[in-house]
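explain this.
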Amino acid sequence: MTRIAKFTLVLAVALMAQQIHAQPTPKRESETATTKLGSITGRVLADGQAVINASITVTGVNATIAARFVATNDNGDFEARGLDAGLYRVRVAAPGYVPVLSNSDQETYYRVGDSVLLTMAKGGVITGKVLSANDEPIVGVRVRAMMIREGEGKAASEVDGNLDRLTDDRGIYRIFGLRPGTYVVYAGGRGSSGYGVNGFDNDAPTYAPSSTRDTAAEVSVASGEEKAIDIHYRGDAGHSVSGNAIVPATPNSFWITISLTRLIDGAPDAKFSMYQSSGAKGFEFQGVADGEYLIWARYAPNSGDVVVSEPRHITVKGANVTGIELTAKPLANVAGQFKLEPSTIATCKGKRPLLFDETVVAVQRRQKSSAKEVPELPAYSSAQIVPDKSGNFVLRNLGPGLYDFDVRLFARYWYLRSITQPTTAAASKEPATIDTARNLLALKSGERITGVKITVAEGAASLAGQLESSKEEKAPAKLFVYMVPAEKDASNNVLRFFSANVESDGSFAFNNLAPGRYWVLARAANEKAPISVRSLRLPDAAEARAKLLREAEAAGHELELRDCQNMTDFKLLP
């Protein structure tokens, strides 16, 4: 995978799923009753100790649900009360600490009645002095630390942004609360806002130790670790990048956001933003260093659709860049509706019904594969939404490209049966349907796709099991359990393929399983095998699914799940 592809995938996932790792799986409320009002409780720990006075933000995924703000007590406990039924994000912040993030490619959501354990870690520190060429302290210059790789070596997500501090009268800076990872540190230049506040902001940034971005020193920081690095300030003059953004006319003037992103080895790096009024002409960035950049405009006169210009590639080299024209165009929308199929089977009676407030539908654009292509704008490569009370949904503001669907159900006894969209057969001109679960959705700029139907059926089963191995055998570091359909006529039904990771104690669990016969197979993780349910169901995973079917059938671990069955004692031999 190219660096551009990796960055786009990591960043898109990050914009969609910057979530906090919760262990163990949240305790769920009863699945036999519908909750009207309730609370989400939890505890915040760091190295096994309570984090006192941590700020907890509980935000509804449905935008109509008001956020709750609470603090942890002396035991690290919290409770957000008076919550309507729905899905919620739970975020935690505490000075000097950073949340431990999940490695999952899915964002973690919580429901009323859940009890959550949130883990934090002591943040890292980067400190040092900013000195002139004569080793005199430079006072009042802003120093920024920008993460370029996470602790596991993955490309850093844009959400981490820049942390900054001004130097004091001794020229000393100290940036704390850093997540474990690798950083570059620089003084001067504009921050992400694109606006200046002192005389150093029009300079090109000086990277530690006394470099441009291309030769900047990389600083790796672990949890609780402090690193020192001095910067000898170069004082290089920055350049300007200016032009005009053109957007559709509106009755009132609104702000157009202009974004400028530096490219390093073809992959996006630091990002800067500024604004132009829709009722005026012209924008200008100052303090821009030599290098390769992408620039684009975004306009959102209301809370619904936005218009975005195509990203333009520019080169800044020893001079100002002027006369850039950015014309914003509409993005694509996808609209559809959920269809529910209740069960009439006795074992499913009295179970908690599916609530649309507790359901999420999302789409994700597949990344480009060529390093020569201009990187796509990750901010418009995904969308997710909670359907309304009638099951209708609109996924807005999507850039052109190929997308896959992801439907997440939080009601245990329901499963995803199908995703389809209407089309017209070229030969017969008669309406037909496309199996959207098996095929990527192709979108063009400004396109409006309607009629997507997501069918959800009652009767889902669940499975909890244990992977058993001989004491002499050493289990691989990372294991996954796959469930694939045992019925021959279901081998092409991608919605019958599931995966789950094996915990350190050998346990694994599946929910929202369609009833039927399955082969069950344990496999060690590797780069070529899809490990998430979403990646397992993609069109380009057809060969991997066929291989899993062959291997699972050969292993011979078969089971049958009935409607609304909860199997809790399944034993699996590797």
About this structure: The longest strand covers residues 267-277. The chain has five domains: 3-121, 124-232, 239-330, 332-458, 461-572. Helices lie at 3-17, 533-536, 542-555. Residues 1-25 have pLDDT under 50 and may be disordered.
